[in-house]
Amino acid sequence: MKKLFLLTCTLLTLFSCTSDTSNLETENENFSILAKKGDSLVINKRNCVSQDILEHELKKNPELAINIQKIEEFSKKVIIKDIFEIFPIRIEIPVVINVLYRTSAENISLSQIQSQIDALNQDFNGINSEFNQVPGVFAGVKANVGITFVLDRVIRIQTTRTEWAVLNEEMKKTAFGGIAPTSPTNKLNLWVCTLAGGILGYAKAPGTALELDGVVIDSRYFGTNGRATAPFHKGRTATHEIGHWLNVRHIWGDSTCGNDLVSDTPSHNAANYGSPVFPHYSTCPGNPIEMTMNFMDYTNDVSMYMFTNGQKDRMRAQFLTGGYRYTFVQ
C-alpha cells in the first residue's frame, strides 16, 4: 500500500498542469484565456486539460497509477532496445467522428471533417507545408511518425445543450445525451462539440477507462475550413491531443523545466504561446533553445509543425506487441 501511495504521488507530480485551466471544478468561470470581441468570447491562448483530467482521475482511482507505470516501463524497455527497426509496423488508425450539435454551424460539414483527417496525415507523416522550416538545430531530430488516419464513419446527434463541460465527460455518455465510443480497442473516437470554459480540446491518456477513451475537440478549432477559427485553424489542436492519446506529454513536462520523458527535446521553462520569435532561449540549465515549433507546446497553429524521433518512439511503442494500443494493428 505504501508503494502504491508513493507511486500515485509521483504521478500526480508528473501530471500536474500549469495551464490557465488547471482548476476544472470552476472551468465555467475561468475566462483568463479569452478576449472579449463584441458579444462573444474568443480564445486567444491555447490551453489543454488532458493532464488535468488525468490528475483528477488519479485522485479518484489511485490504482490507475499502476496501469500508467506499467505502460511507462514497457515504453522505456522497447525504446532502450530499439526494436522498432527489427519489427517495423505500418500503423493505420480508423477514426470515428462523433458530432454533437445544437446549431447548424455546430453541425460541421464533411469537408471540415475531412480537412482534419488530412491535417493529421500531413502532421504525423512529415508532409505538412512547414516541415522543411524546422530550424537547423532541430533538423536532425524531426520525425515522420508514420501513422495514417482514415475516416471510418461520422455519427451526428442534435442536442439542446449550448456547451459541454469536460470534467464529467457527458459528451461520451448516452444517458446524458452524448455518444458512446465505437469499438475503442481498434478505432480512435473523436468527439466534436462546443466545450465550456474556453477549452480547445483534451485527450485520454493510455491506461484510462476504455468507455471514455478518445479525444474531444471544440468544433471551432477542428480542421482547416468551415467553422475552424484562427489562430487555431490548421488542425493542430487534434494533432496535439492525439499526441497525448499516444502517450506523449507536454514538452515542458507540466512543471518549470520539467521532464517530458523524451531525450531529444530541450528543457522548457513552461508553455509557450502565440508565435515566438526564433531562437527563444530557456533559462533552464544549459540555456537551451526551446523547441517552440513542437506540436506538444502551446503555440498557435501556424507556429507548431514537428514531432521528434523520441516522441515518435513513445507513440509507436504503444502499437508493438504488449503495447497499450496493440489491438489497433492486429
Q: In one word, what is the shape?
A: globular
How many angstroms separate the termini? 36 Å
Percent of residues in β-strands: 5-15%
Name the average pLDDT.
Answer: 87
Biggest pleated sheet = 5 strands, mixed
Helices and strands: which structural class? alpha/beta
**Number of continuous helical runs:** 7
- Total strands: the figure is 7
Give the proportion of residues in helices.
10-25%
Low-confidence stretches: 1-40
Secondary-structure element pattern, one letter each: HEEHHEHHEEEEHH
- The strand order across the widest sheet is 4-3-5-7-6
Cα gyration radius (Å): 19 Å
Structure overview:
It is built from seven helices and seven strands, in the order αββααβααββββαα. The chain has 330 residues and is an alpha/beta fold. The protein has a five-stranded mixed beta sheet with strand order 4-3-5-7-6. Strand 1 and strand 2 form a beta hairpin. The radius of gyration is 19 Å and the shape is globular. The relative contact order is 0.17. The N terminus is likely disordered.
